Amino acid sequence: MMRFVPILALALLAGCTSQQAEPDPEPSLSASPAPETSDELPEAEAPGGNLAGAGKDADWDTFVLPCDDKTQEPIVQQVVTGDVTGDGIADALVVRTCDNVGTVEVFDGSSPAQRPWRIDQPLLKGPPAELRRPWVTGVEVTAGEIVIKANGHAIDDDSKTCPKDRLVFAFKLVGTDFTQLRLRNDPAGKCLPAG
Fold first, then answer.
1. Spatial contact of 41 and 35, defined as CB atoms under 8 Å apart
2. Are 163 and 140 contacting, i.e. CB atoms less than 8 angstroms apart?
3. What ranges does the record list as Low complexity composition bias (predicted)?
4. Is the pLDDT assigned to residue 5 strictly greater than 70?
């Protein structure tokens, strides 16, 4: 029985080598040729990560609220980023219009880019701001305060065809709701652009 042990040991050692077999390298992927025209470009994919990473490049048409008139599509006019929540992450302020009336929707920058979280209700929606039929011309965020510039109408103007007021709204997030801090109205004395 003793003489079979060395043979068995030799048989076991024969299968072992001092070098480990290296795995086969992964096949190399050849680069696809670049598209010839813009018509051949692939469709953009939904952004990953958080909203602050996507910022202005997210597909905002799919995230803003629909128009009250279901026959209309909301039109995204502008996207501005700035820290509204005070967490050090840029939030997204999306200006959109329906029937030449603008609103600003604010989305939390730390939310997932595929499903951004809207903060409170859209700014400029509902009375008294909506009665002025604002057409947003600019938005900025300074020290957490949102300043919205718009062309609009006097509240007692029934014609709604010729905005003659330059409006400046200021909002601040207090808790989970926006509070309007002030509204400045500078009558222009002439028709201003609205759409």
1. yes
2. no
3. 27-36
4. no
